[in-house]
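Model it.
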Amino acid sequence: MPIAPVSKMAKQEIVWLGSHRCKCGHTYLEHYSCYLSENPLKERIGFFDTENSSLVADFGIMLCYCIKELGTDKIYSRSITPKELRTCMDREVARQCVKDLSQFSKIYTFYGTRYDFPFVRTRVVANGLPFFNYGELFHQDLWFLVRGKFKLSSNRLENACRILLGETNKTHINPTIWIKALQGDIKSIEWIVDHCERDVCDLEKLYLKINQFQRETKTSI
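Modeled.
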């Protein structure tokens, strides 16, 4: 359960959380996850990851994305369909991705500054769709926090979770599955979605463990 980040809050915010109760009957300081779910107009945080057919967006397409909402079990996702692979490619995945991202005020990623968001932006624009203007959606990349505040043999998400959390649910990439997915194999596409969901769940857990070591920023995607 997420803990209220009181060290980063103003006194009046802490007093309000301690004097108002959630639907469970506890104060929002005790049940901060209830505060996050019951106050959608406040900052809404998501954890974002994509799975794509290539490392570069002019030779690749989006296969799926996942956005895990902080403090809830809700995961927004959309994957490409076999029919779309034969017709419009990732156009509808890109369209829905922008729509789902717009539900949040701030997104956390792991290496999303240099990969996920540039890839998504490229695919959205290449498909002739509107993307976020500067300042419309904020982003913070936990990869930089891991690299800057810890000394690990590898700064990959899997290793960071294994060392700092003591566990990881991440599955390993199998090239054959990616190839079959591009051929429209439904089971392979479903495996990739599951792989992506595991990543965003691990990312949320890592955020709750290490976010105290950084200053919150308002950087536009």
